[in-house]
Write a structure and sequence with these properties.
Blueprint: H1 26-40, E1 47-49, E2 59-62, E3 69-80, E4 83-87, E5 96-101, E6 104-110, E7 116-122, H2 123-136, E8 147-149
Antiparallel strand pairs: 1-2, 2-3, 3-6, 4-5, 5-8, 6-7
Length: about 150
């Protein structure tokens, strides 16, 4: 495993749509492992999309305290409700803002061995899944901020 450099908000790669992963293989798992190590070694890391480390593939890692999720081609297939949340981003250090997100999401993806999985998520995990899925579509949370906040 290796730490990867996180791209910052002004990097144009972050505004591009990531490509579908056709095959989950050892190379895919290596990228996911590197992403997890990078996330865990960065302050305030709860999730990381592959584009944030310079790879335009639909890969995401998330750990909101309930264990590590490694997702390939995640897709939000249902959402309901709404919640006003405070978000930050590893690609936008020091920037925090309020964003509207669904209260509940249903996500379909592949796990790191290629098996199909479905995740029903609420509250904080739903927020994180939406945030990381936005990254895969070239959208930063700063594009959605309705109010900047100061977090100390």
């Amino acid at each position: 495993m290796a730490l990867r450099e996180i791209r910052m908000f002004d990097d144009q790669l972050l505004h591009k749509v990531s490509r579908h992963v056709d095959k989950v293989d050892d190379h895919t798992r290596e990228i996911l492992n590197d992403m997890a190590e990078t996330m865990y070694n960065t302050q305030n890391g709860g999730g990381l999309a592959a584009c944030q480390v310079g790879i335009l593939r639909r890969l995401v890692v998330i750990d909101m305290g309930q264990g590590l999720l490694k997702l390939v081609n995640p897709q939000i297939v249902e959402s309901e409700g709404e919640q006003l949340v405070v978000e930050g981003c590893l690609s936008c250090p020091g920037i925090w803002g309020r964003v509207w997100r669904p209260k509940r999401v249903l996500v379909k993806a592949l796990e790191e061995n290629g098996a199909a999985i479905t995740i029903e998520a609420y509250d904080e995990l739903a927020k994180c899944l939406c945030h990381e899925t936005d990254h895969l579509n070239g959208i930063l949370f700063t594009d959605k901020i309705i109010e900047y906040v100061d977090i100390k």
